[in-house]
Hints:
Blueprint: H1 3-22, E1 61-66, E2 71-78, E3 97-100, E4 110-115, E5 119-120, E6 123-124, E7 138-143, E8 148-160, H2 166-170, E9 176-188, E10 192-206
Parallel strand pairs: 2-3, 4-9
Antiparallel strand pairs: 1-2, 1-7, 3-4, 5-6, 7-8, 8-10, 9-10
Amino acid sequence: MSQKAKSWLLVVAALAGVWLVQNGANTRLTPPGPASAEAFAAGPELLPGSPVAEPLRPSAPVRIRIPSIRVDAPMMRLGLGADGSLDVPPSGNTDIVGWYKDGTPPGAKGTAIVAGHVDNGQGPSVFYNLGALKKGSTVEVLRQDRRTAVFSVDAIEVYDSKDFPDKRVYGTSEHASLRLITCGGGFSESTGYEGNVVAYAHLTSVR
């Protein structure tokens, strides 16, 4: 792993879950959580029988579509703030998804990290229904090179922030892998969401 890749892993592992938890709306909305049947089973992490496509050359994503939960949203680059923490999509814009611009772009070899808010003070945001995904659900990422990377969901899991599996979520992959992350789990009136919902997917075709 290159030094740049190691730095990216450290930044995301330390900070991505934190901002998603802290930026959840202080509301009583209850977004759907993943069913136990959608979690990883024993054995390979890729959904059995699902095709694996060859990775694409790197190209920035511009839009994400998840038909089963009615997501069709633009994507923006996320950098680092002055304090070294990961920037976030604007909380007032409920229809935008971010990806770390120095990480793996979706469709390229490695693990691409995509994050979005579950809600804000006014109501649901773009990834409100992420926990309702099912194994085999399709995720489409439109890229600047005018190609569409099509992913299949392998599992959806929810983690308490104190038990967040950094290596499993952010670790390297031999395939073109995708992680979709939002806040979820338990909710505290004083601190907001206490965990994260993570959907795992891999590239199955290209259009």
